[in-house]
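Question (not urgent): is this output format expected?
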Amino acid sequence: MKRCLPIFISLFTLGMSIGVRAETDAEVRARKEALDVAGAFSNDGFKVRDGHWCGMVKPHEHALVAVNLYAGNQYWFSAAAAEPVKKIAVGVYDETGKQIPAERYNNEEKAAAGFAPANSGQYYVSVDLVEGEQGSFCLVYSYK
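Got this back:
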């Protein structure tokens, strides 16, 4: 039994550390800005969904997030990035990769896209670097 305890503690510690990653200061700043953008939509009755996605946005690459959406709801995907990013864009794509027409908000390192899906299913949200250098971003979404 005494030999099993150190093994159990090691496995428990390893299990707790998998998938846990501390956010960087840049990601925290980007999240704050993304939540500020999303807050503007709350005036129209949108609720900010718990959770967020942070990562790196790079030139000539899409940062993609898969989301399950439901017909009958409206959604706004709000993103913000930290320096040295100068300008980003948010796009929404269906399961075949076709870009979906959406309302847009763009303000340099902050952007959002809003739409109401006609069909329930999996969609993809992209955050794209339009101007500047590689940097951290955060994406949140709102629904009603």
